Amino acid sequence: MSMTIAILAPGAMGSAVAQRLTGRGARVLTSLEGRSAATAQRAHDAGMIAADDAEIACADIILSIVPPSEAVTLAERLAAAITREQTAPVVVDCNAVSVETVGKIEEIIASSGARFVDAGIIGFPPRPVHSGPAFFVSGEHTGDVTVLRDLGLDIRIVEGPVGAASALKMSYAGINKGVTAVAAAMVLAATRAGAADALRDELARSQPQLLAKLDVALPDMVPKAYRWVAEMREIAAFLGPDHPANLVYEGFARLFDHIAADEKGARTDVAQLMAFVKGGKVGEV
Amino acid sequence: MSMTIAILAPGAMGSAVAQRLTGRGARVLTSLEGRSAATAQRAHDAGMIAADDAEIACADIILSIVPPSEAVTLAERLAAAITREQTAPVVVDCNAVSVETVGKIEEIIASSGARFVDAGIIGFPPRPVHSGPAFFVSGEHTGDVTVLRDLGLDIRIVEGPVGAASALKMSYAGINKGVTAVAAAMVLAATRAGAADALRDELARSQPQLLAKLDVALPDMVPKAYRWVAEMREIAAFLGPDHPANLVYEGFARLFDHIAADEKGARTDVAQLMAFVKGGKVGEV
C-alpha cells in the first residue's frame, strides 16, 4: 500500500525531503495556497501534488517544515482541518522551536485527535548523491513514523517525551550556529581594526580545524541569516528568560538580522566576511 | 649586558614568563606589595626579585600582565613611578583589553615619557617542555622588544599602530572563548531537557573535531571562568555599544560569572559540564 505524506511548506528543505520520498514511491501532497510561481515549480519538480487542507488532513503522515515563527500558526491550521475532516494522521513538527513552543504545538494537534511526534532536523537537505539530514524524533508516537526509513529518511529515535528532540535540535543548532555567529562578529570587528589578516594567520596556526570549519560555515550562513533570526530567539526561549546566556542568543538574532539586511543592501559586512574566507563564495555549500 | 625586565603581576602567566626569562639569564623584578604568601613563593620559584616601584621604573622593559580590570590602574602607577624616577623603559601592555582601553593606557604611559608597546598574548603559559604562547606586538616601538626573542619569548609583530595587537587578541579570544561559552550554555540546557547524551552522540557523528576541542576546552574553562568575565566585557567594548553582537559578549560575561559562582558554591552546573565531557577533570590542561 502506498503511503501518502503531506509536507508543508515546499521550501528548500521540504521540497528536497519530498523528492526523496516521491523517488521511493510515496505520494507527497503540499499546499501551494498563496505561494509564488517559483515555489510551485520547485514543488512540481520534486513530484509533489498540490492539495487543499481537506486532502492534506487525509494523509497518513503530515510533516511540518516551516520557519520557526510559522510553526504555531500552521499547527492551528492543520488541527482545524483534521477536526473538520475527522481523520487520524500523525503530525510531525520538524521545526527549530523551543521545548515550550513544541509543547504548545502538541496541545494544539492533540485537540484534533491526531497523534503528534516531535522532530528536529540536523543537517543539509537530502540530494540524490547525499544521504540527507538526520530526523531526530521523540514522544510516545515515534513508532508511527519509523516507516519513513523505508522511504529513505534517516529517522533516529531520541528517548524521551515530546520536547526531547527539539531540545537536541536547539542545543545542537545553538552550538553550531553560535560558533558561526561569534566568528562572524569577531571577523567583522578585526577587519574594522585592521587585524583580519593577523587573525586568520593565528587561527591557521593554532586552530586549523576551526578555521577550516569557518571557511565553509561563514559563506553558508550569509544567505540563511534571515531565517536564523527567529531560530536564535527560539534558542533564547529554550534557555529561559532568566538564564545568564539568554542575552547571547538575543544578540545572535540581532547579528543575523544585521547581516541579512546588509546582504540585501550595502553588502559591506558580507564583503568583509568573504574577504576573510578568501576565495569562498556566498551560499556555495 | 644583562637585561632587567619587570613583570607585574606574578600571576600564573606572569610567573611562567618570568621563569622562561630568568632561565635565559635575565634579571626579572616584580612587585609583591599586598600579595599573598603563595604568590610570593611562586614569584621566588620563578627566580623573580621583589622590588619597589622605583626599582621597577629602572627596568629596561616592563611587562604588564594583569586581569583586564586592573590594566589602567597599573598603567597609572607605572607612569607615576617612571615620572618620579625620570627613567626611560619600554612599557608593554600584554592585557586582554579593548582597542579603546589600550589607547587610554598608551596616553597614560606616554605622559611619563616612556615608550609604549601594545601586546596580546595568545596561548598557554610557557613551561619547560612547551614553547609558550605567542606575544603579538604592535605600535611604533615594537623594535625595542624583539630582544625578548633571545630570552625565549615568541614575539610576533603585527603591522599597525597601538591597538592592532589588542584587536587581534580580542577577536581571537572572542572566537575561542565564545565557542566554549556557547557550548557550555547549550550543554547545560540540553542536560536540563534530558538531551545531553543525544547531543554528544550527534556532535560525535557530525562534528567530531569540534567535540574533541570541547572535551579539552570545557574543563579548562571552569577554573578560569572568573577571570574571563572582565575579558568578555572588554570584547563587548571592542565591538562598541551599538554593535548588534555587543549583547552576546555581555551575555558571555554573565554566563562565566554564573559558572564561577557555581564552581565556588553548589557545583551543579560544573558537575553537568564534567558529566558531558566524560572522564574529563576540571582544569587538567
UniProtKB/TrEMBL annotation, chains A, B:
Domain Phosphogluconate dehydrogenase NAD-binding putative C-terminal: 190-258
Domain spans labelled 6-phosphogluconate dehydrogenase NADP-binding: 5-141
InterPro entries in the cross-refs: 6-PGluconate_DH-like_C_sf, 6PGD_dom2, 6PGDH_NADP-bd, HIBADH-related_NP60_sf, NAD(P)-bd_dom_sf, Pgluconate_DH_NAD-bd_C
GO terms for MF: NADP binding
Protein name per its UniProtKB record: 6-phosphogluconate dehydrogenase
Domain of life: Bacteria
